[in-house]
Design brief:
Elements lengths: L3 H16 L7 H12 L8 H9 L7 H11 L11 H12 L3 H14 L4 H13 L3 H19 L11 E2 L5 H9 L2 E10 L5 E9 L16 E6 L1 H4 L26
Parallel strand pairs: 1-4
Antiparallel strand pairs: 2-3, 3-4
Amino acid sequence: MKNLKVILFFIIYSSAIQAQETIDFKYSRDYAKILALSKKDTSGLFFPDLYKRFAAADTTLTNYEVLALQIGYTDNDNYWPYQDIEMERVIWGLNEQKKYKEAILTCDTLLRKNPFNLLACREKGYGLVKLGQKDSADYYFYKFDKIVTCDFSTGDGSSYETSWFVISPADGQWIIKLALQGSICFMGSGRDKDSNFHDILGYHPDDDEQKSEKKENSSDCMHLYFNIQHAAKRMFGKGGRIPVGKEAIDSISVSTVR
């Protein structure tokens, strides 16, 4: 039987998600439709219009609109998510070394290319807090929270059919570590019945009493599914080469205790 603490966590977590706006989103049915609407200036999901609101920290943006923004970005010339991973690791390392100004500048470089990068939004906020600039930090924490909330609203993460939509092959790991404040106890991948590619990650809550029990086959290692089919199509970059950072996906090792 699963550990009671894990069960209680997911009861509370599921209730919180249900209380928010959920999206009736099926990747194979809806992805291409939403992408087309993001390019249509009369659709209400036109990417430039939605992006202006996102950049202005518009709190009225719905989960569906943020999903349309992310899907629209996956067709952007700057969208090469596997090539962002190494820079994400650099950002994390700089903040760990308390080099906050350098971390913020590196976040700026990445966010100019990918304004929806989860790690850069969160770590720029963190760095600004450490520099005593909380008001500025809130803007980036808003973006992190908005994207994560949107991703959670696309499913419950428990299966291929209800997989969470994310735009980066590293996002699942950052969500577990930073949003769910947990550890990764399993790493795998697979394809659903429509051949869409998914990351499958095992989640274990960070709990000192249970750290010794974090084993891949443990009943407390809950498998979560993240749909990254759109990212997989961009794996090899513009030049068709294996991207810098691809080998780092399986070795993102960070502490969430700060």
